């Protein structure tokens, strides 16, 4: 049967496996590809290939995740009271300053 119903790890048909739900959640938390493409077209007078928008979107997603992870690590070090993490702007700034590659990249952006 090529198109059988998906089964959960418990074997019940119709229930969604946990992994599938998590991947659906991850897919919804993406940068808006179409919006980025439109912004690039406006900036470069409509001469943007779709692949360029996909590439830029992937870069923005990657850098955002990296900075967020570093910020969370810094916040964990500062907030050790009850297990919850409060991420502050200062944590993000400290994370950027502590990572030489990201700091170097953002220094180049700031100078332009």
UniProtKB/TrEMBL annotation:
<protein>
    <submittedName>
        <fullName>Histone H2A</fullName>
    </submittedName>
</protein>
<dbReference type="InterPro" id="IPR002119">
    <property type="entry name" value="Histone_H2A"/>
</dbReference>
<dbReference type="GO" id="GO:0030527">
    <property type="term" value="F:structural constituent of chromatin"/>
</dbReference>
<feature type="region of interest" description="Disordered">
    <location>
        <begin position="1"/>
        <end position="29"/>
    </location>
</feature>
<dbReference type="GO" id="GO:0046982">
    <property type="term" value="F:protein heterodimerization activity"/>
</dbReference>
<dbReference type="GO" id="GO:0003677">
    <property type="term" value="F:DNA binding"/>
</dbReference>
<dbReference type="GO" id="GO:0000786">
    <property type="term" value="C:nucleosome"/>
</dbReference>
<dbReference type="InterPro" id="IPR009072">
    <property type="entry name" value="Histone-fold"/>
</dbReference>
């Amino acid at each position: 049967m090529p198109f059988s119903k998906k089964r959960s790890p418990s074997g019940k048909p119709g229930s969604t496996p946990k992994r599938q739900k998590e991947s659906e959640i991850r897919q919804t938390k993406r940068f808006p590809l179409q919006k980025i493409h439109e912004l690039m077209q406006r900036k470069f007078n409509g001469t943007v290939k779709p692949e360029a928008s996909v590439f830029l979107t992937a870069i923005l997603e990657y850098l955002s995740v990296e900075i967020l992870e570093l910020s969370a690590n810094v916040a964990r070090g500062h907030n050790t009271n009850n297990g919850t993490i409060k991420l502050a702007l200062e944590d993000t700034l400290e994370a950027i300053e502590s990572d030489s590659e990201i700091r170097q990249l953002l220094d180049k952006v700031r100078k332009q």
